Amino acid sequence: MSSVPVAQTTVESVEKPDRLGEWSGKSIPRKEDGRHLKGQALFTDDKWQHRMGYAHFVRSPHAHARIVSVDTSRAEALEGVFGTLTGDEVKDLSEPFFQIAPPPGGNLKEWCLAVGKVRYQGDAVAVVLAESREIARDAAELVEVEYEPLPAIVDGIAAADPDAPLLHDEVGSNIVWHGVYDYGDIDWALENADHVVKIDRLHFHRFSSTPLECNAAVVNWEQGTGVIEIFSNNQMPMFASLVIGPALGVPSNKIQFQSQDIGGAFGIKIGSYPQITALALLSKKLGRPAKWTEYRTDHMLSAGHGNERTFVDIQVPVMADGTILGVKVRAFDDAGAYLHYEPLGAVIWSQVVPGCYKIKHVQVDFTETVSNKCPTIPNRGYSRMQHLWLIERIVDVVATELGFDPVELRKHNYIQPEDYPYETPNACVYDSGDLPKALDLALGAVDYPAWLKRQEELGTGSGKRIGIGIGTTLDSGTNNFGQARIINPELPFSGNGEAAYAKLDLYGEVNLNLGTTPQGQGHETTAAQVVADILGMSPDDVNVTAGFDQRHNTYVAFSGTYASQFAVTGLGAAMGAAEKLRAEILKVAAYALEADEADLDLGGGQVFVRGDRERAIPFIGIANLVYSNNAVLSPELAGSVSLNCRHVYVPPFQVPDHEAKTGNLTLTYASQTHVCVLEIDEETGHVEILDYAVADDCGRVINPMIVDGQVHGATALGIGAALFETFEYDDEGQLMQSSFYDYHAITALDAPHIKTEHVQTPSPFTPNGAKGMGEGGGAPLHAVCAAIQNALDDGAPVVSESHNSWERIYRLINHEPNAPRGVEVVTR
Amino acid sequence: MLLESVEYTRPRNLDEALRALASREGAAVLAGGQSLVNVLKNRVASVDLLVDVSRLDELRRIEVGADGGLEIGACVTYDELERSDDIRGAQPMLASAAGHIEDRQIRNRGTIGGNCCLSDPSNNLPPLLIALGATMNVQGPGGGRQVPAEDFFFGYFMPALEPGEILRSISIPPLADDAGVGYQALSVGHDSKAIVRAAAHVRGGDTIEDARVVLAVVGPRPVRHSAMEDLLNGAPASAETVERASEAIGDGDGLEPISDAHGSADYRRRVARVLARRAVYEAMMRGARS
Ligand SMILES: Cc1cc2nc3c(=O)[nH]c(=O)nc-3n(C[C@H](O)[C@H](O)[C@H](O)COP(=O)(O)OP(=O)(O)OC[C@H]3O[C@@H](n4cnc5c(N)ncnc54)[C@H](O)[C@@H]3O)c2cc1C
């Protein structure tokens, strides 16, 4: 072997006093649930402000067109309309959004409303503010826009063609990013492998987690103070601030984001910053708060779709014993019309280069293009899911083509429990895991041998086929923002972090606030659990501020809720703040009890002398001494404690090497292993899931019920994506699924009973042993595709699409006898 | 999305409703509103007066004759159909079909009349009503008339109603002792839009005496497949007969389905035969059991 990867990364294991245990690890009911179940939550649409107007966006019906003119006079004349804002005004009043991509992709200019051209169906050209939603909608219809249609390009690969219709003149082509990731020695592997499996094309489709609540915001550019108040459900407000501030020419201390309850986000709600920017300008122009609640069709047309990726020319060197040496592939990501958070997707996949396997040689030639479709935005499993689907498809295709058992082939290639911490070819460090055990548990939960028997018994002539599929996946969490430099070396980003602020309140209860913007993940509950353990009190006495308020909550620039990290960064911050508070409490207690700090312990909301619970002071006593009785304390003590403690958790990262494209890109690697057993009706392609199991490993579990809920959600969304949910455009760039009539979002009626199993391999790198797990890694897509393939006959084509409608399955089953299979094996 | 402003009236009886409907060109009947209101929100129809008939007693009754024949008021909801002992007794498949329309909210409001008058080729009830040999009782300014269900669904969103007419009720003849009903639908998810539907009514003992086979979502209106019916009638009631008869549908030549987000026209044509065969077989088995 010519080059053996050498260890490049070291991550310090965390030494910590382990105080978690009494409350952490228990399924205590969620603090949030009461208000949600009783309709007492505060969502953005519940927010009302004096003199507020309602906004409605005017959207392009064309995929690509020059804007000849926009006439708002009839809209403005309608009674009840406060005013309008158009692209031309926006061009005068604001700057284009900053771009993550380096030039030429970074030359792309996007304002908060379309300027000069529209580039996808749903692109916003103007916005209207009126005294009611109804009038705003009516007025929007009165805005007359004259378009000169242009040819549209909807295929992400064809978009790279120099002759393709050009979206952004200033970029010069539709290619916005290109780079080659080259690890190990793929040429050596291809030359020396016993077999090379070649797959023509695999396509990962567009879909969305379609949060129950669409985007919404109430934006008030206060004339008196110059402060822009934004009450919204944006899930990454600090990123939004970093983008909005320069666009509006406002300092960040004049931008104040707030949110409380958010009805799901899944990454999609990172993408509402253009609309928020437009609302700010509208508010300033008209001197009123502007409220916007997005309609479902607007959401589907324009709020953002998950990344669509096409893999071509896939080559997989495999040894006779089944060892998969490497992967060589060209990948095309289709970002849609503008770059929202993109082209970060072009690097984020590399958190999981070898998937769950000891694959050493990987070359990915990665191109990102723009096309006349809705911009993509991170969607649960962002960018890694696409790559993991590729790897899982490869493993199954290798098994099918070379005659390996898919279970044995996986176990043979898996990273083994003793290999952790495991360094990947690009110097990421997988923290912990036990993949073979997880697979055994999941297979056991569905009674795999029994299904194999059923499958055999069924035979031909029954009209039914049973397929069994495995999806092993990783949910890499707590990312190192330094990976952005692999996209653009000029970007001043690296590391990650989250902040928390804990204080003892007047009667000895605890108040905690966080920099996060939860959307149903139960942060109030799990944060209270860890804080309660550290301070020896009940979670009931820990009030965690609901939602985020930039005026009061503490935060860092990474703050928000995204990318599977709360259990590490958010709880890491909460634990750090609680430890600091604990230290102050002990200091005051030692003084009050005239005892040595080392002899004291906390429990039941008191500090007591170990071995003598009678010698104790309750937290109310501590609070009293510091807040309202401080003349009793020594001046040194009074001057050194505040019982108000802030902590910023900083994960141990270094700056990645952007030239080699290596470095530790994420701190934790949760895993999910899914097994799907399904039955296909040969005559219609209809699928019924007969059995489904998930073995999940997110290290130490803080609240098992919440973890199970996340597993259920990720499973349902993944199954929905695999079988029902897709965003497709016709050749003219018209979206074919712009409402729930045409986009069948999975419901409880479609979801199978999900059997859950747990493996707990604590992360040595995190403050609590937990690993972020909310995104889930898209495992159902892998498992469902594998199960469909498993149900097909040997001559059938490769399952090359991540979305398989009944019709597509019907066609795979009823394929032409000599249909091209899309796969070839070259054996030496 | 939001409605344009529109006037609304709730007449006290059918005559008043007919008069209100005649009073303006832009008047429309409002029943459960589960389709009409969405159409209005999407602003694809211009209506300026909604005549709400959903609470008219005359349209809300279910009457069962001594022979088991039914007369169902146009504004009986899906939920009422599903729960009614009369319907469950006389036409169990109708109760079950109504109980499977979309979700609970829609079943609480949507009506059998609205489901028919929308004349959406993908709706659940039209093909079944044709298979059951139903008759639509229509009331107009000049009096009443009867339209066989088969002729009622004229085309995409076009029921055989003249301007100013209201569907009053639907009559369904009794189910013979030796008859059975089958109903099959292929849809994307459990409760989503159908790709293809097939309904069948089969009467006879060892020999099939009368078969009605209806296909839907394969063209602008649900259609009876007379070629398949001809092959069934007079043939022995067996799986082989059904299989052979379904070949009359073949690959669906002659059907005129559309391609949409849920399936291509070609796919719809191909599965039509499968669903028709299954529906007929189901009808035959149910008939034999009773
Ligand atoms: C999300 C969603 C999904 C749906 N999915 C399905 C489905 O899968 N299958 C299905 O069958 N249906 C489905 N529907 C439609 C639903 O069944 C409607 O209830 C039905 O189509 C119309 O019935 P309605 O009583 O609500 O009528 P309305 O919406 O009030 O009226 C529908 C039309 O019929 C006319 N009309 C109504 N009653 C009369 C009458 N007595 N005389 C003359 N004209 C009349 C109205 O003027 C209007 O043109 C769905 C609806 C929604 C909202």
List the keywords:
heterodimer, A: alpha+beta, Aldehyde Oxidoreductase, domain 4, Aldehyde Oxidoreductase, domain 3, 3 domains, 21 helices, 27% helix, globular, B: 290 residues, alpha+beta, Uridine Diphospho-n-acetylenolpyruvylglucosamine Reductase, domain 2, Uridine Diphospho-n-acetylenolpyruvylglucosamine Reductase, domain 3, Enolase-like, domain 1, five-stranded antiparallel β-sheet, binds flavin-adenine dinucleotide
Q: Quick check: average pLDDT of chain A?
A: 96
Q: Which strand order does the major sheet of chain B show?
A: 4-5-10-6-7
Strand percentage of chain A lies at 15-25%
Helix content range of the residues of chain B, please? Answer: 25-40%
**How many beta-strand elements of chain B?**
14
What is the SS-derived class of chain B?
A: alpha+beta
Show unreliable segments of chain B: none
CATH fold-level name of the largest domain in chain B: Uridine Diphospho-n-acetylenolpyruvylglucosamine Reductase, domain 3
Helix run count of chain B: 12
Strand content of chain B: 25-35%
Greatest interface by residues involved: A-B, 27 and 24 residues
Count of alpha and pi helical runs of chain A = 21
Distance between the termini of chain B: 48 Å
The outline of chain B comes out as globular
Instruction: Just give the CATH class of the largest domain in chain B.
Output: Alpha Beta
Q: Please tell me the CATH architecture of the largest domain in chain A by its name.
A: 2-Layer Sandwich
Describe this structure in words.
The complex is a heterodimer of chains A (828) and B (290). Chain A folds into 3 domains: 33-41 and 497-649, Aldehyde oxidase/xanthine dehydrogenase, molybdopterin binding domain (Aldehyde Oxidoreductase, domain 4, 2-Layer Sandwich), CATH 3.30.365; 44-150 and 209-302, Aldehyde Oxidoreductase, domain 3; 179-208 and 304-482 and 656-814 and 823-827, Aldehyde oxidase/xanthine dehydrogenase, molybdopterin binding domain (Aldehyde Oxidoreductase, domain 4). Helices cover 27% and strands 24% of the residues of chain A. In chain A, helix 6 packs across helix 7 (273-286), helix 12 crosses helix 13 (448-458) and helix 16 crosses helix 17. Residues 1-6 of chain A have low confidence and may be disordered. Chain A is globular and about 90 Å long. By secondary structure, chain A is an alpha+beta fold. In chain A, the strands form 7 sheets. Chain A has an 8-stranded mixed sheet with strand order 3-5-1-12-9-10-11-22, sandwiched between helices. A 6-stranded mixed sheet of chain A has the order 7-15-14-13-8-30. The model of chain B has no long low-confidence stretch (mean pLDDT 95). Chain B folds into 3 domains: 7-52, Uridine Diphospho-n-acetylenolpyruvylglucosamine Reductase, domain 2; 57-172, Uridine Diphospho-n-acetylenolpyruvylglucosamine Reductase, domain 3 (2-Layer Sandwich); 179-289, 2-Layer Sandwich (Enolase-like, domain 1), CATH 3.30.390. A 5-stranded antiparallel sheet of chain B has the order 4-5-10-6-7. Chain B has a 4-stranded antiparallel sheet with strand order 11-12-13-14, sandwiched between helices. Chain B has a 3-stranded parallel sheet with strand order 1-3-2, covered by helices on one side. Chain B contains 12 helices and 14 strands. In chain B, 50% of the residues are buried. By secondary structure, chain B is α+β, with helices and mostly antiparallel strands. At the A-B interface, helix 4 and helix 21 of A face helix 12 of B. The complex binds flavin-adenine dinucleotide. Flavin-adenine dinucleotide (FAD) is lined by residues 28-36, 38, 53, 74, 101-102, 106, 109-111, 113-115, 117-118, 120, 123-124, 161, 166-167, 193 of chain B.
